[in-house]
Every structure is written in C-alpha cells, then in structure tokens.
C-alpha cells in the first residue's frame, strides 16, 4: 500500500500489527448507526483487514462545534466485525436505513435499491449480520467498495 504521509504509514502499520494482517481495502465512510439504535453521523475510515470489517471515527477539530457543544467530550467509536458473521451486504436507500436504525424495522423488510432507484435515492450500504443486527454506512467511493466486495466474494447485492 502506498502511504501519503509518515503519519498515515504509522497508523496503518499499527492496525496491521493489532489485527495480524495487511489492510486489503479502505475508504472514508459515515457510520449512521445500527439497527434498533440511535441515528447519528460519524465520519471515519471503513477498512477490511485479516477477514474483518473495521470502522474507526476521528475527533473533529471544528471550532464552531466546540463553541456550541462546550461540555460535550469526544468518545471514540471503533469496532470490527468478523467477515464470517456477515449474512449479506446490500445497497439500500438512506431513508430505509434511517427507518431501520430509529424504529427497528426488521432487516428482511428493507429492500435493496435496484434499477433507477440507485439513481433516484441516496445509497447507503447495509452490512447485515447473521444474528440479525445491521450496520449502516454512507460510503464515499461506493464503486470501489463494490469492486472489492465482488473480488473478495463477499455476500454483496447491489
């Protein structure tokens, strides 16, 4: 992998040490939440390493939000999901994802975007686990993710 800065190189080397493998793919993403939880927007990095899907957010250095939310402390969000736990990966509409997150709509009632729906609606990627829980992300480079998932032969529909 080619790194843009020494800091980026150190970051990925540390992740590879922690997870015991090489980073296979990464993209910038916005984590929207999980099924039956609260809707939020956390910008960060989504990546695959050693058969795990991982996400990590980063503290925003935004002076305006610091003025408005003076007492709110940053809480890091970082998690990984074993590839074997994935039942399916779907492209769904943003509104369907928000509904699943906030109301607990059953995952099997969320319809993947097809045909013209992919053009008309803002796409969100649903990572559905075998236990029924789903994670929802807005992906910055969706075409690259699709290509990676197909090459990796993961259960992708989209």
Could you please describe the fold and organization of this structure?
The structure is a single chain. The chain is an alpha+beta fold and 158 residues long. The chain is 28% helix and 34% strand. Strands 4-3-2-1-7-6-5-8 form an eight-stranded mixed sheet. Strand 2 and strand 3 form a beta hairpin.
Assembly state here? single chain
Q: What number is the mean pLDDT? A: 86
By DSSP, the count of extended strands is: 8
Q: What does the largest sheet look like?
A: 8 strands, mixed
What is the N-to-C order of secondary-structure elements (H for helix, E for strand)?
HEEEHEEHHEEHE
Give the termini separation. 27 Å
Radius of gyration: 16 Å
Number of separate helices: 5
């Amino acid at each position: 992998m080619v790194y843009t800065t020494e800091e980026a190189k150190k970051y990925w080397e540390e992740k590879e040490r922690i997870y015991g493998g090489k980073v296979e793919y990464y993209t910038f993403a916005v984590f929207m939440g999980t099924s039956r939880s609260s809707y939020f927007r956390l910008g960060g990095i989504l990546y695959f390493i050693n058969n795990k899907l991982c996400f990590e957010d980063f503290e925003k250095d935004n002076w305006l939000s610091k003025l408005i939310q003076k007492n709110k402390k940053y809480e890091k969000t970082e998690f990984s999901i074993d590839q074997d736990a994935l039942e399916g990966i779907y492209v769904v509409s943003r509104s369907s994802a928000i509904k699943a997150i906030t109301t607990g709509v059953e995952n099997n009632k969320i319809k993947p975007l097809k045909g013209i729906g992919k053009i008309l609606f803002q796409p969100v990627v649903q990572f559905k686990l075998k236990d029924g829980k789903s994670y929802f992300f807005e992906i910055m480079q969706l075409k690259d993710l699709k290509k990676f998932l197909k090459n990796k032969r993961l259960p992708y529909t989209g």
